[in-house]
Structure prediction request, 606 residues.
Amino acid sequence: MFQEIQQAVETTLRAFCQAEGIPFVAPQWKPIPFAGEWGVSTSFFQMAAEEARAGRGTGKPVPVRAQELAERMRNQLRGLEGVNRVESVKGYLNIYFETGAYARRVVETVLAQGADFGRGAPKGERVMVEYAQPNTHHSFHIGHYRNTILGEVLARLLEFAGYETIRASYPGDIGLGVITVLWMYDKFYKGQEPQEVHARGQWLLKLYVEATALLEKKENETPEETARREQYEAERREMYRRWDAGDPYVRDLWLRTREWSLEELRDILRRMDVKIDVWFFESEVDEPAKAIVEELVQRGIADDERPQGGAVIVRIDEKLGLKQEKYRTNVILRSDGTTLYLTKDLALAKIKFEKYGVDRSIYVVDVRQSLHLQQTFAILRLMGFPQAEKCYHLGYGFVSLPEGAMSARRGRVVLFMDVLEEAVRRVLAVESEKSPEMNEAERRRVAEQIGLGALAYSMLAVDNNRDIVFDMDAALSFEGHTGPYIQNAHVRASSILKKSKVEGQKSDLGLSTFDYELTRHEIELIEQLSRFPQAVEQAANEYRPLVMAAYAYDLANAFHSFYHAVPVIQAGQENVRAARLALVAAAKQVLANALRLLSIEAPEVM
RNA sequence: GCCCCUGUAGCUCAGUGGAUAGAGCGUCGGCCUCCGGAGCCGAAAGCGACAGUUCGAGUCUGUCCAGGGGUACCA
Prediction:
């Protein structure tokens, strides 16, 4: 925020180097890593090393020379506006800002910009984030949740950082798994249907598990069992053939049951406050995918081995002229003429580029599909799409359970709705003792906000590439490094502001001067507030929600410490009270901004 | 075989090549006459191994060791 000071120092430094015949190295400014004061620092090690390399050195060791340079630079810097003092320590030049002016500047900026504080300038680029791709005819489990919260927060970060952002969902609504459920339903459960949205969605998973058991080859089967299993298998294949042929009965059954899944999905997304802009269904890109196969054969990118009874393949490395194996070879059309996941992704990418004008395309997909997506992007390059260079696979580690990997076909999954229900139950247990005055409806609403806050934060506070072993107790903890800890900071800030008004005291938030000796807690809190815009920028640039999650915790931590140690309403002097109230308002604002980016609610009470 | 990811405190995780490697949980010890104790303050405890690059390496490179994932007609 004090760019002009850094500019002035840089100018002086350049002149100094010129006069002394020392190679100029642009300073790399960093915040001074000591609590208690604000400022920026830069080191002179690089400059000393450059000097030695250029043969103009003094023969002294680099650290010694760096300190010497820092000291001489310090002597050049006098009377800088807004600077309290300058020091040279261990090869570093530290420039400390004037406390009152800096504090005022930060707090006023936050309060003036409000919900927009930290927003980046428009980037002039349209980006699509694809996430929330559960298969239909299953139920939404905790792994889908990680995918969805990650994608949503990424979309919010990119949007706030200045990108035009489109949210896309791509449910897998067709495939052998889906057909298996249709077969099971049609054969054993026709006409049945639970009424409640989530019960119905979860029921489909139950059918899938049962069907898998019936269709799986077992040890020591009797001849009758084998015959029955093979009969079932034939029926399932026939079901798939009829779907493919557009048989009205099967199509109707498929659409009706698919809707049960989508109703459940939409309800979960609503609870998560996720608003998808564009829905792509896997079944809808099947025909375009077949067209792409023919196009690739025509253009000589794909090799057609159908005449020999084979498939259509792309020898990606060969076509790219790579000597070493990297993308390998992939099938884009099975020998029976059906498309694959890869083929459909090619068709989908084409639609994203051509129909939606996407410049940058991000795929939030499990890291295990990394090779497939790299292959997709490589073929898009072969097809000549310049946007292929800006396709990015955000791979994240998968969610497993303490007893091992989740398995839908074996029914070994943790459903999101079950976790949410448990979360609400646990929050309510805490709430009833902490906030007995809340009414029933509000209590329930806040419980969901806090429960979801805990769950979301537990997912977001882990870096993308890490696997997560889902532990209910850890995910739903409300103490320490958690979502509720941050929400609680927001609640406390709200509480102070409310009380200050109840007492009829007016604080002119815009004109707080901070013309008193600030405590280290105030300084640390203001430091955190000033860091928010950089945190947004970094999190968006690196596609890492973790950066924002960590920032939000640091800010909340600074606020809690401040809250405990520094009186606000009870501050003795009116100017101190007014300044601190403004600081609390600013902290509340930035906490809310950070939580919003994390897709976590910022409640007034809890 | 080849490719990718991960080894940091007892456990779970942070740590844009820079000053004294940080949190949470757990353990131990403090703090409610005070704006909400879902909180605050403090203690003990750590970079898988070995080389290399660099003024400087938890961070970059290489080789090992250990764990996980992926490797053309699943998604």
Notes: The two ends of chain A are 35 Å apart (CA to CA). Chain A is about 55% helix and 10% strand.
